[in-house]
Amino acid sequence: MDYLSCADVVSDESNVKKKPLPIGGSDFKAVTTGYYYVDKTLLIRDFLDIKPMVSLFTRPWRFGKTLNMDMFRVFFEKIEEDTSIYFKDKPIWQCGDFYTRHQGQYPVIFLTFKDVKCLTWEETFQKIRILISLKFMRHNELENSSMLTTYEKEQYHRIAGDHANEIDCQMGLQLLSLFLHKHYGRECIIIIDEYDTPIQQEHHCNFYPEIVNFMSNFFSGGLKDNPHLAFEFLTGILRVAKESIFSGLNNLKTNSILDESYREYFGFTKEEVNAMLHYYGKEEKYEEICDWYDGYRFGNIEIFNPWSVINYITDKCFPKAFWQSTGSNEIIGEIIAAATPETTENLYKLLCGEKLTTYVDTSVIYPEIQNNPYSIYSFLLVAGYLKVAASYPQNDGNFMCDVAIPNKEIAYVYEKEVLNRTNQNNISISINQAIFSGDTQKLQSLLKEFMLKSISSMDGVNEGFYHGMMLGLCAVLGNRYRVRSNRESGLGRFDIQLMPMVNGIPGFLFEFKHTKDPHADLTSLADKALQQIDEKKYDTDLRDADVDSIIKIGIAFRGKNVVVKRA
Fold first, then answer.
1. Which of 310, 357, 438, 565 is the most buried if burial means most Cβ atoms within 10 Å?
2. How far is Cα 401 from Cα 324, in angstroms, rounded to an integer?
3. Is the domain of 129 the same as that of 13?
4. Are residues 238 and 311 in the same domain?
């Protein structure tokens, strides 16, 4: 496995050399012997207490899935090396013989699809074929096994020699588990890491049916009614049971971010982060690290993003968005491209710190993202762009959830992805400069320029579209203002309010008007918007917060035309 190390970390207080943190580390042996390791070995205990035939763990990118799967491999796999040395000083070894007797007792098939990202089905299949061939080659003890028949050895050599056809590859898990079972006299453990990466990739490249069909047959042979299987672990971002990939599989236990089981084993808990900061003499950074990388909720406990915490401490505790370089963000582009005006407005409300109540289906599938706007929030949640603030179980096994952006890091990532995908990033900075300076002429000119370049004549069908657009353009001000939308204040609900978070800067109120009438006077409409701000006393909240300077702006829209007035 790829393994990236970081430089040794030295404590400023004691000048004592500390263990380095494992940036990108997914090799359990290496991480636990040469690096600071946040112990997750009790995951083994919790699994053995239940021991489902097939376990699927769905978590966002960079939350420790691969490292945990390699931990399973090292613990369970029967090899010549005595691998118990990697566990005897860990909590799992203190749990007793019921658990430790499983150590080093099973043949293991470990397969990761994390690098299967190709542009065509032909290239994808070639890569999968090579991966399967390498797994057969790894178990070269089968080459001369006295327990295999001549025909079985021929099958082994054909696949190990990279001569397998598509049918052979679809049967790969079933055949290899059969051979290992016969050779060792014990059922296999199968571990599949990032099983849905090819599915996501191929969705973007328009050969989705081919990969789904292949995976369906591949997993069916390895998982469904396989007498050679002790148990199996899979990891991924999404649970794609609706795809028929796991069709007819009645022994699958899914563990999503909404489930209580295994909640503390992917990502870091508060206690683990506190212990890490204490080890490196950085206890005073706890509040900052909470603001930036905490906020996720798995089951009913708070979880920190482990990738970002490790990078933050390694990078001398300078906060920034480390997570933006991970995962695949193509789906965000699809979300924006397919978004309705209502969805666009909701996305910007989230970006401005608001919560959204939505139905969450943890088995959301990729085609639904384009066809079903409500699946957008489900995907953003399971992919790590949103958190669960509160959940309400439904009778169908899914949830109604209050969702929000979890922390400062994701706010930056979210802002970058959403604004960039809508071509709003550069112009939004200029627009916000105009807003902050109160330059209505400049603001009007920039809005006209933006709408001419970025929206179609069909977009401006209602006020909600312009409302969402303005929310997005105000998002860059989020480090100085709380951006609020459609909130009660005075005698009604304002459109957008910018509540200062810094003393001495003005507050803002925006009211929008929209018309389709080609003869309507936009200047008069903008004046009516300003009049409404005063009549409805929308400035009440700002005055109650002791904001001395309040700038009121009325904006009238029609198609790609706009008039901006300031009180």
1. 310
2. 25
3. no
4. no
pLDDT tens digit string along 461-506? 567 778 877 877 776 676 678 888 888 888 999 998 999 887 888 8
CA distance 558 to 501: 33
Structure tokens at 191: 């571990």
433: tokens are 């400069």
Q: Which residues contact 82 (CB under 8 A, 6 or more apart)?
A: 104
557 domain-assigned: yes
d(CA 241, CA 254) in angstroms, rounded, equals 10
For the chain, the domain total comes to 4
Answer for the pair 336, 421: CB distance below 8 angstroms, yes or no: yes
> Could you tell me the residue range of the domain that residue 432 belongs to?
424-566
Q: Rounded to the nearest 10 degrees, how much is the dihedral formed by the CA atoms of 71, 72, 77, 81? A: 20
* CB atoms closer than 10 angstroms to residue 24: 18
- C-alpha dist (Å) from residue 349 to 85, 394, 459, 567: 52, 25, 19, 25
Give the residue among 293, 263, 301 at the shortest CA–CA distance from 277.
293
* Domain annotation covers residue 7: yes
Q: 435: domain CATH number?
A: 3.40.1350
Q: What is the largest CA-CA distance in the chain?
A: 91
Q: Do 502 and 489 reside in the same domain of the chain?
A: yes
**CATH classification of the domain holding 168:** 3.40.50
Beta strand 496-500 pairing with 507-514: antiparallel
Of 423, 384, 349, nearest to 61 by C-alpha is: 384
pLDDT tens track for 220-240: 888 888 899 999 999 988 776
Strand boundaries in 16-87, DSSP class E: 17-18, 54-58
Q: What are the CA-CA distances from residue 529 to residues 297, 307, 393, 461, 513 (Å)?
A: 41, 47, 42, 19, 6
One-letter amino acid at 239 equals R
Q: Is residue 248 part of a domain?
A: yes
Are 547 and 487 found together in one domain? yes
Same domain, 288 and 244: no
Q: Is residue 261 part of a domain?
A: no
Residues 394 and 452 in one domain: no
Quickly list H helices, 190-293: 197-204, 208-223, 270-279, 286-293
Question: Do residues 292 and 312 make contact, with C-beta atoms less than 8 angstroms apart?
Answer: yes
The two structure tokens encoding residue 76 = 């369970």
8 Å CB contact between 20 and 313: no
Q: Tens of pLDDT along 231-289?
A: 999 998 877 655 567 766 667 888 989 889 999 999 999 999 999 999 999 999 999 99
Q: Which pair of tokens denotes residue 100? A: 């430790």
Token reading at 94: 């203190």
Q: Is the pTM of this model over 0.70?
A: yes
Please tell me whether residues 510 and 394 are part of one structural domain.
no
